[in-house]
């Protein structure tokens, strides 16, 4: 449709419209920024796609018998069927059918009309991942090749605070391919009096060789927590 147009008898404007569309049962902005609508037209019941900025109709993204939809943490579409007590999952990029996420006759569903995830944005209904725990790496911004320098690893919780209870093991890696590189050995964090309590400095623990921007990464291979820092190596 293009730009919003005033409609007779309405206080605002029409943002998105397609001929024959009525009883829109779901409005969701997808990860691509476009607007997805479960069209309640009894002869269509499809998921329509509109440009998120202009409201211009793009296509019938998923034809079928749907009443509402939402995007999940995998960026795929979860949609309810108008004539069955089930939730179907479709590829959020291509619209291809993936599976019957909640099959008909299971989950105690009875004419499901609304869907949302715990992390769904209340305005757009887009899925918003929870902040993840991570490592904050602190090192000199520039280093001299073949000269050791300190690196500090700080464990942060999902709120960005120091995780004083962290007791995982960190492993180091780097983008510097030179065989002369020196990295700290795997290290298990400790807690309590005299412990790391979420912060540990490896004094003169890193030596890089190759001139240019090099990445240092620390990873907890058990939990998957990771963090990186870039150091510019000079001659």
Care to describe what's here?
By secondary structure, this protein is mainly β. The chain has two domains: 5-102, Thrombin, subunit H; 134-234, Immunoglobulin-like (Sandwich), CATH 2.60.40.1930. The chain has no helices and 18 strands. Strand 7 (66-71) and strand 8 form a beta hairpin. The chain is elongated. The model has no long low-confidence stretch (mean pLDDT 84).
Features:
mainly beta, 40% strand, 2 domains, five-stranded mixed β-sheet, 235 residues
Show the helix and strand layout.
Elements: E1 5-6, E2 13-14, E3 26-29, E4 35-38, E5 47-50, E6 57-62, E7 66-71, E8 77-81, E9 87-90, E10 97-102, E11 134-139, E12 142-144, E13 149-156, E14 169-174, E15 187-188, E16 199-206, E17 212-219, E18 226-234
Parallel strand pairs: 12-18
Antiparallel strand pairs: 1-2, 3-4, 4-5, 5-6, 7-8, 8-9, 9-10, 11-13, 13-16, 14-15, 14-17, 17-18
What would you say about this model in short?
The protein is mainly β and 235 residues long. Helix content is 0%, strand content 40%.
Which architecture of the largest domain does the CATH hierarchy give at level 2?
Sandwich
Helix and strand string, N-terminal first? EEEEEEEEEEEEEEEEEE
How is the CATH topology of the largest domain named? Immunoglobulin-like
Shape: elongated
Low-confidence parts: none
- As a percent range, the share of helical residues equals under 10%
For the biggest sheet, the summary is: 5 strands, mixed
Number of DSSP E strands? 18
- In terms of DSSP E residues, the strand content is 35-45%
Radius of gyration: 26 Å
Structural class: mainly beta
> Which CATH top level class of the largest domain fits?
Mainly Beta
Distance between the termini: 59 Å
What is the residue-mean pLDDT, rounded to a whole number?
84
């Amino acid at each position: 449709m293009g730009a919003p147009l005033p409609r007779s008898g309405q206080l605002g404007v029409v943002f998105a419209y397609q001929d024959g569309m009525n009883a829109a049962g779901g409005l969701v902005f997808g990860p691509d920024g476009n607007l997805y609508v479960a069209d309640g037209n009894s002869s269509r019941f499809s998921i329509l796609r509109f440009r998120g900025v202009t409201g211009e109709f793009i296509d019938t993204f998923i034809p079928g018998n749907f009443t509402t939809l939402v995007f999940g943490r995998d960026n795929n579409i979860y949609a309810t069927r108008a004539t069955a007590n089930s939730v179907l999952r479709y590829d959020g990029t291509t619209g291809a059918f993936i599976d019957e996420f909640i099959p008909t006759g299971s989950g105690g569903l009875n004419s499901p009309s609304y869907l949302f995830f715990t992390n769904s944005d209340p305005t757009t209904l887009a899925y918003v991942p929870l902040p993840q725990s991570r490592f904050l790496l602190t090192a000199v911004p520039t280093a001299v090749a073949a000269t050791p320098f300190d690196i500090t690893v700080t464990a942060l919780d999902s709120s960005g605070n120091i995780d004083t209870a962290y007791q995982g093991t960190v492993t180091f890696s780097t983008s510097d391919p030179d065989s002369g590189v020196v990295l700290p050995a795997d290290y298990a964090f400790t807690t309590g009096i005299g412990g790391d309590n979420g912060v540990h400095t490896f004094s003169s623990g890193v030596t890089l060789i190759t001139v240019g921007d090099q990445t240092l990464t620390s990873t907890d291979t058990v939990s998957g927590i990771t963090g990186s820092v870039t150091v510019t190596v000079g001659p």
